[in-house]
Design goal:
heterodimer, A: alpha+beta, 6 domains, 7-stranded mixed beta sheet, 6-stranded mixed beta sheet, 27 helices, 24 strands, flat, B: alpha+beta, BirA Bifunctional Protein, domain 2, Methane Monooxygenase Hydroxylase, Chain G, domain 1, 2 domains, 9-stranded mixed beta sheet, 41% helix, globular
Chain lengths: 786, 311
């Protein structure tokens, strides 16, 4: 068995691309090996800022031989066909072919072609340059004199040399011979750029790894991360401090060095006036350094850790001092931003408190939220309306919710957030507290972006909940309105995250909301948000005769009006809600003539009911994933969702009760009985037509005692299940259903549904339809699998 | 570092701002670069010098280095910020095609100005460069020295809308930052300009502080907006007219690229001033950038018809 060592040595690879590149290299090469019948024992890839390395262990020296049979023409076929066969099969004469007999007794020629496997070395010489050529870098470039050619090699940064050796452990490996972009493969690599730049001759992975280690290169990124983390913790500990761990930063800095050396720097204590999060963001984003916490105060210390790439001849003093200077310069900027944000804003000083002045600026700048969804200022208006409307339903004071929503986006125009977007919300909270806002209002400003991911905390305070829900519902209906839904892996506006956020906020706070009406409310707010003096005209769907249905609403008190517009004439036909089509056609007028120049046609939009329905299905999908991650059965969600329920808390309660019920013998058996009844009904409805058996069974036609028993049980069960469901006691509803099991079993045991007597048949089918209805009050069992 | 530089503080890159410039010029002259002088127009970056924009297009090999005063009206801070200037110096190197040892050359140039790579942590950190106004982009890095960005290192892939074939390597040294680093000062105005001590010492502030104050006032408060809009429109029209004048109707001739390109540079600077005056809205901003880019692209296309491009 032989091993492959493959290294691509280049100029510095961006840190953020390294992990994916290592995975891609492994996938490309091993995929190609397997495709060519070459199996191996193990493969591992590594990456540093300057090299991508692949080690494949246990490859055979040759591909397996392949035998292929080629069917030829029948015996006695024309000469031309025979010649063509010989040529294509590579035979000299028919003597080399055999004669076979097919099923019908006809005789034909057959050629057996032996294809000896190629030497693995030769296969690699084909595969490796292909992998380089087809490497899926997110961004690649050309360089040097070769870049004048149209087929120039592309790589992430200039590629300098290639190591490719192959051979068994016991012998000197061979170089896999190939050339690409003017670079010939070889067995020479280079050490650390500054500490050991000399060439290193390598044989196989083992000595390669040791050679690099000696030349101050730690090949394995996981080891570099370990070294950094370990040394950083030690250095912090020695000073009585704690490392503020940061995995993203750890991965990044491990991708910036081949030989990590952790050093400590410091900055003036006076900078600790800046909030910890801002200090951390400043030092992290600009300097890629770690910050340290004082365990006694829980606050940051005036020290930081940097990761250098060299062992400096002065022990790193100059490096630490240099980084310290840059950190100080950055922190003085941050301190300046932090103070500026608390001071009056020139041109807006008369607009209230500092954060209100920023809100005025946000409005005045008309910063675009999305080109089809208006400005951030308009969005704030919608959030205020929605948060106020949601507040009483989630136990919040409407005025507090409205105030929090009003200020929620004001920090977007602060200096700190401009510099560090990840501090949005948090800075709003700080500035709100500083200007004396109510504590719940300040907290809601920070919390309204939450949860940011599946593991992020959810807002729990009522005011925070109202604003967080308003923010997410507005986002969802807005993007739904302009048809920017997520597709496949594309979700540029993070709508899936927003929907999951809504689900988690509702379920984990046990909020009782009717999602459909909230969605419609949010949509109408997007559609018709009340800005004094403005009239928004929204076009619905284009009809074949170029008529467009519209919804128009004057501000404030006007009821929604639906109608149509003839775009070719710019004429609008509007009717009030509820009027019929005939009346409406009499009210026609020109768009600008009626609404004046304030009328704006915003966008073609679907109806509120359509949006709410479509979004509800989207929520159902997200809820499924949410439940699946918690180990619940997703088919039960379909069964419950089919009831038309939109209260998420109830949906989940129903699912839980149903899941428990189905685990019992009664439940499993009833499901079987239900399926049997449903199948019979389906078959018979094909004959008699859909809905043919929906009438209640006739008590006078219940011939057998089992029929009577079932009919009685059904009546009782339906009643009990309904009462229990109304009381939201789904366990009790299931218990009621369980009582059906025995009569259903007995019914199927003794009663022939398809009786000769037509009346009896119909009545029995009506009994089964009633059974189906009764069960559907609890859940649509037809959606349950298994 | 040459012996004479070490001996004479006026020429020493670690002691004088001018010494830093002179050392870089000497270094790149030794590498065969043409040492040019700054372009005689207001530009936002050294890249705008036609020795970079236009000369990076086409096949003809080219090596040049020069200092370019760069004007960023919006970055003015009335002389009150220790790091930010509305007028500063870039040292620009352009090498076509990019040599294989460009990174090593760059590191040697740092050594020449006294940055010892055994003592300082020098890093190449991803930074993809793009100039929307020039219709240009490239891949490369910011070069860090002990955590401070001291240079930009770019392999041009496209300039003025034209694919670079071959690719040029561009190095841009932020001279003030680099000088602050090697001189060990925290405020740009404290930089020693001439390397002398006592009464003979001239600082960066002596030379530029008044200018920073006056130009900040000019850029933010005084520049005549009407006139600037006029400047922009006239430069745009003139650029197009000159390109039309020089067009010979075939792929091998154009007689007026450089004067037309000057007008493109003028339009760009007028836009930068208007931007600083805060009279261009977010949506308009994009359209102005596009208009300058159209001019740059037209100039690039015209340049490809001249001998300068090497055809």
């Amino acid at each position: 068995m032989s091993d492959l060592l493959f290294e691509l040595f280049s100029e510095e690879i961006p840190a953020r691309m390294q992990a994916q590149a290592a995975a891609d290299l492994k996938k490309l090469v091993t995929g190609a090996l397997i495709e060519r019948g070459l199996t191996f024992e193990a493969a591992e890839s590594f990456v540093t800022p300057r090299r991508l390395t692949l080690h494949v262990v246990g490859l055979p020296p040759r591909q397996p031989d392949q035998r292929e049979e080629k069917k030829g023409p029948r015996v006695g076929a024309p000469e031309a066909a025979i010649q063509g066969f010989l040529k294509s099969a590579g035979l000299k004469s028919l003597d080399e072919a055999t004669i076979e007999t097919d099923k019908k007794g006809g005789q034909f020629y057959l050629a057996a072609i032996e294809r000896p496997g190629a030497a693995t070395l030769d296969v690699l010489a084909e595969i490796l340059p292909e992998a380089v050529k087809n490497f899926p870098w997110p961004k690649s470039m050309r360089w040097g004199a070769g870049s004048a050619e149209s087929n120039a090699l592309r790589w992430v940064r200039p590629l300098h040399s290639i190591v490719a050796t192959f051979g068994p452990e016991t012998e000197d490996p061979e170089i896999v011979p190939f050339e690409i972009g003017g670079i010939a493969s070889g067995n020479v690599t280079y050490g650390h750029r500054f500490m050991a730049p000399q060439p290193i001759k390598v044989r196989r992975f083992h000595d390669y790894l040791l050679g690099l280690q000696t030349a101050k290169v730690v090949l394995d990124p996981a080891r570099r991360r370990d070294i950094i983390l370990h040394d950083a913790r030690d250095l912090a500990f020695a000073q009585g401090l704690e490392l503020v761990e940061d995995e993203g930063l750890l991965f990044e800095v491990a991708g910036l060095v081949e030989w990590p050396v952790v050093l400590m720097g410091e900055f003036d204590k006076s900078f600790l006036d800046i909030p910890d999060e801002v200090i951390r963001a400043t030092i992290r984003a600009n300097q890629k350094c770690f910050v340290l916490r004082d365990p006694e105060t829980g606050r940051l210390a005036n020290k930081f850790l940097l990761v250098s790439n060299i062992v400096a001849s002065d022990g790193g003093q100059k490096i630490a001092a240099g980084n310290g200077r840059v950190v100080r310069a950055r922190l003085s900027d941050a301190l300046y931003f932090w103070r500026t944000d608390q001071a009056p804003l020139p041109d807006y000083a008369d607009k209230g408190k500092p954060l209100d002045q920023r809100l005025a600026k946000l409005r005045a700048l008309k910063i675009v939220f999305h080109q089809n969804l208006g400005s951030q200022g308009e969005r704030v208006d919608r959030l205020v309306a929605l948060a106020r409307e949601l507040a009483p339903k989630v136990g919040a004071e409407p005025e507090k919710a409205a105030r929090a929503a009003e200020l929620a986006k004001a920090d977007l125009v602060t200096e700190v957030v401009g510099e560090f977007p990840e501090t949005q919300g948090l800075m709003g909270r700080y500035y709100a507290e500083l200007q004396g806002e109510d504590g719940e209002v300040a907290a809601a400003i920070e919390d309204h972006y939450k949860p940011q991911g599946p593991n992020d905390l959810i807002p729990a305070a009522p005011v925070s909940i109202a604003v967080a829900l308003a923010d997410k519902l507005d986002t969802l209906v807005g993007f739904w309105a302009i048809d920017e839904k997520p597709t496949g892996s594309k979700d540029p506006f993070a709508l899936r995250r927003a929907a999951l956020g809504v689900i988690r906020i509702i379920l984990e706070n046990r909020l009782r909301l009717r999602l459909v009406s909230e969605l419609i409310e949010a949509y109408e707010t997007v559609l018709l948000h009340k800005q004094t003096g403005d009239i928004y005209v929204y076009l619905h769907e284009v009809t074949p005769n170029r008529l467009v249905t519209i919804t128009a609403k004057l501000h404030d008190k006007t009821r929604p009006r639906y109608g149509a517009i003839d775009r070719s004439k710019d004429v609008l036909i509007v009717k009030s809600e509820g009027e019929d089509q005939e009346t409406s056609s009499s009210v026609s007028f020109s768009l600008t003539g009626h609404f004046g120049d304030k009328a704006r046609i915003i966008q073609r939009l679907p109806s509120p009911e359509f949006i709410a329905g479509d979004l509800l299905a989207f929520f159902a999908d997200r809820l499924k994933i949410y439940l699946r991650d918690r180990g619940a059965r997703h088919d039960l969600l379909d069964a419950v969702f089919a009831l038309g329920e939109d209260d998420l808390v109830l949906i989940v309660a129903r699912i839980n009760a149903l899941e428990n019920f189905l685990k019992t013998e009664d439940g499993a058996s009833l499901l079987t009985g239900y399926k049997r009844a449903a199948n019979i009904l389906k078959a018979e409805e094909k004959k008699d037509g859909a809905g043919a058996f929906e009438a209640p069974p006739d008590a006078g036609l219940l011939a057998e005692p089992q029929e009577n028993a079932l009919a009685e049980a059904l009546e009782r069960t339906e009643r009990e299940a309904q009462v229990a469901a109304k009381a939201e006691d789904f366990e009790a509803a299931m218990r009621a259903l369980a009582k059906l099991r025995a009569p259903v079993d007995a019914f199927f045991d003794k009663v022939t549904v398809n009786s000769e007597n037509r009346d009896l048949r119909k009545n029995r089918l009506q009994t089964l339809a009633q059974l189906r209805r009764a069960i559907h009050r609890v859940a649509d069992f037809s959606k349950i699998g298994g | 570092m040459t012996d004479s530089a070490a001996a004479n503080p006026a020429l020493d890159p670690r002691k004088s701002f001018q010494g830093l410039i002179l050392t870089l010029q000497t270094f790149w002259a030794r590498q065969g670069a043409v040492i040019l002088q700054p372009y005689d127009m207001e530009v936002g970056a050294g890249t705008f010098h036609p020795a970079t924009t236009l000369r990076s297009l086409g096949k003809k090999p080219w090596r040049a280095a020069y200092v370019q005063p760069s004007r960023r009206p919006k970055d003015g801070r009335y002389g009150e910020n220790p790091n930010r200037l509305q007028h500063y110096y870039q040292f620009q190197v352009i090498l076509k095609p990019s040599p294989d040892d460009l990174q090593e050359l760059y590191l040697h140039s740092l050594a020449a100005i006294g940055v010892d790579s055994a003592l300082h942590d020098i890093r190449f950190v991803e930074d993809d460069w793009e100039s929307p106004t020039l219709g240009a982009w490239g891949l490369g890095w910011e070069c860090w020295c002990d955590g401070m960005e001291v240079s930009q290192f770019t392999y041009f892939q496209q300039v003025a809308g034209v694919e670079c074939a071959p690719v040029s390597g561009e190095l841009t040294y932020g001279l003030e930052r680099l000088a602050m680093y090697v001189q060990g000062v925290e405020n740009v105005y404290d930089l020693n300009f001439n390397g002398l001590d006592g009464d003979a010492r001239i600082t960066y502030g002596d030379v530029f502080l008044q200018a920073e104050q006056e130009y900040s006032r000019h850029n933010f408060e005084a520049a005549n907006v009407e006139k600037l809009f006029g400047d922009f429109n006239r430069a745009e029209a003139e650029c197009k007219a000159l390109l039309a004048f020089g067009d010979q109707g075939d792929a091998k001739h154009h007689l007026m690229v450089l004067p037309a390109y000057d007008q493109c540079v003028k339009a760009s600077h007028a836009f930068n001033l208007l931007d600083a005056r805060g009279v261009i809205s977010v949506t308009e901003r994009q359209s102005y950038i596009l208009r300058v880019r159209e001019l740059a692209k037209a100039c690039g296309a015209a340049w490809m018809k001249t001998e300068g491009s090497g055809f």
